[in-house]
Every structure is written in structure tokens, then in C-alpha cells.
Design a protein that fits this description.
Strand content: over 45%
Structural class: mainly beta
Organism: Crotophaga sulcirostris
CATH architecture: Beta Barrel
Helix content: under 10%
Protein name: LRP5 protein
LDL-receptor class B repeats: 1-42, 43-86
InterPro entries: 6-blade_b-propeller_TolB-like, Cueball_EGF_LRP_Nidogen, LDLR_classB_rpt
Number of helices: 0
GO biological process, one term: nervous system development
CATH topology: Thrombin, subunit H
Number of domains: 1
Oligomer: single chain
Largest sheet: 4 strands, antiparallel
Length: 97
């Protein structure tokens, strides 16, 4: 499957690689969704959201069980990287140097 964030519509969506079965997973309480990474082993997706209240969130790959992981000391959380072996999530913040 292919997952993406859409800042223009403030949604997280998924589709099969052939373009079928497109589905909106999350469309509420997103302000400026940006980066997204997946942990297919554990079945999670993680994403950044700039907006008025910047945050990094996660949910199951079907969009359920959504929760905020980080919502303090963030400016414009943008890039995400997931180290599956060490079980660590890294992010870049475009507002800080």
C-alpha cells in the first residue's frame, strides 16, 4: 500500500499500489500534516503536523487508535525517520537550526 499526507485537504490517505481502494484514514483535527513513516512490523504509522499546535502523532495503519506522541518544544516538525532495529523515531524541525 501507499500512504500519504495531503496538506491541501488536511488528510492522511492510503491506496493500493495499483491505485485502487483509495481510502481516507484520518481527516479530523489535522492542520498541516507533513511527513509520514510506517512501521509495518508493528502496524503503526507516524506523522508530523505543523499547524497552530505542532505535534507528532501515531495510529494503526487503518487510522484507529490515534494518539499524540510529542506536542511540546516543536516548531515545524517536518522530516521523520524510523529506526526499526533500535525502535526510535527521529524528526527534523524546519523552524529550528
Amino acid at each position: 500500500n501507499l500512504y500519504w499526507t495531503d496538506t491541501g485537504t488536511d488528510r492522511i490517505e492510503v491506496t493500493r499500489l495499483n491505485g485502487t481502494s483509495r481510502k481516507i484514514l484520518i481527516s479530523e483535527n489535522l492542520d498541516e500534516p507533513r511527513a509520514i513513516v510506517l512501521n509495518p512490523v508493528m502496524g503503526y504509522m507516524y506523522w508530523t503536523d505543523w499547524g497552530e499546535s505542532p505535534k507528532i502523532e501515531c495510529a494503526y495503519l487503518d487510522g484507529s487508535e490515534r494518539r499524540v506522541l510529542v506536542n511540546t518544544s516543536l516548531g515545524w516538525p517536518n522530516g521523520l525517520a524510523l529506526d526499526l532495529e533500535k525502535e526510535k523515531l527521529y524528526w527534523g524541525d524546519a523552524k529550528t537550526d
